[in-house]
Amino acid sequence: MPTNLPPDYYKAEEQFRKATTNQEKIAWLEEMLSIMPKHKGTDHLKSDLRRKISKLKAADTQKKGGPGRQVSAFHIPKEGAGQVVVLGPANTGKSSLVAALTNAKPEVAPYPFSTWGPTPGMMQFENVQIQLIDTPPLESEFIEPELFNLIRNADMALLVVDLQADTIEQIEGTLALLEERRIIPRHLQANHEGGLRIKYMPILGVANKTDDEERDADFDVLRELMQGDQCPLIPISVTEARNFERLKKVIYEKLEIMRVYSRPPGKEPNYESPFVLQIGSTVEEFAGKVHQDFRENLKSAKVWGSGAFDGQMVSRDYVLQDGDVVELRI
């Protein structure tokens, strides 16, 4: 029986053959699976692709756990409410920003290319922690291929540029490098026709060295000169700690997450330890965050919050809002 594979499948197959890492190969095989038509003629091919994926994943696991082998430095497990990669050209202040906002201690130096590997740290915003990862400079002359796997797996990116240098060139150059690897700012998604394995992600521009009111005027000029709003921008100064709280708030908002609090029956909620969910999550999804047993055996739920009167009985599919308090009963 013919497979009748579409042209996009063969394009993905070509990219699979060009891939140099197991992670890239797995990603393209999964892309091929998603593109493949679902009928009896493709059953054998599907099984073959799944076997290849399984072997590659097993090889990766063995490589990471084998004697004398180390996990790639660019494999950073996600922690906290979201994972944010901090990107940009050399000497824009990426490492200094991560050091100022988190507990991380990346190497900070006045000369370029002092960062050779990713360095994670946790940033506190109110009662949640968000993971920031300092990364090597994005320069066209040399780019570590595994860096793009790290970016793709992240929830958001900060693009740090130097307001006192060629800022527009820095922004456009970095976005072009990302686009070459099919990583597109989410707010520009409508401008792209789509394609194979495109990653749309929130990208926030951070104009560092906006140290005083005079530099604020420079930043205003920059915003006027930016065409097409390629990247939303926020002015900061690492040396003066300017606009740090504003930056934290914008990061939280762009992650599109919310905090929900559990209230055990007969007790007060713990406002210091929220459960973090994506905006639009339901009571059922919250119950699964608390414990899988709650999701499976949930009988009723009460909600206190801006969208409900105190202690309102709600259904499993009730959509929660930031700051809601939920009492689950099984």
Tags for this entry?
single chain; 330 residues; alpha/beta; Rossmann fold; Ubiquitin-like (UB roll); 3 domains; six-stranded mixed sheet; five-stranded mixed sheet; 10 helices
Could you characterize the architecture of this molecule?
The protein is of the alpha/beta class. It folds into 3 domains: 59 residues, no CATH class; 172 residues, 3-Layer(aba) Sandwich (Rossmann fold); 73 residues, Ubiquitin-like (UB roll), CATH 3.10.20.30. It is built from 10 helices and 13 strands. The strands form 3 sheets. The protein has a 6-stranded mixed beta sheet, sandwiched between helices. Helix 1 packs antiparallel against helix 2 and helix 2 runs antiparallel to helix 3. It starts with 6 loop residues before the first helix and ends with a strand. The model has no long low-confidence stretch (mean pLDDT 87).
Structural class: alpha/beta
Contiguous low-pLDDT stretches (5 residues minimum) are none
Query: What would the principal axes of the Cα set say about the shape?
Result: globular
CATH superfamily of the largest domain: P-loop containing nucleotide triphosphate hydrolases
Name of the CATH first level of the largest domain: Alpha Beta
Report the radius of gyration as a whole number of Å: 23 Å
- The number of domains: 3
Largest sheet: 6 strands, mixed
Can you summarize this structure?
The protein folds into 3 domains: 7-65, no CATH class; 83-254, P-loop containing nucleotide triphosphate hydrolases (Rossmann fold); 257-329, Roll (Ubiquitin-like (UB roll)), CATH 3.10.20. It is 35% helix and 21% strand. It has helices at 7-18, 22-35, 43-65, 94-101, 146-153, 167-180, 213-225, 244-254, 283-290, 292-297, and strands at 83-87, 119-125, 128-134, 156-162, 183-185, 199-201, 203-208, 233-235, 257-262, 275-278, 300-305, 308-314, 325-329.
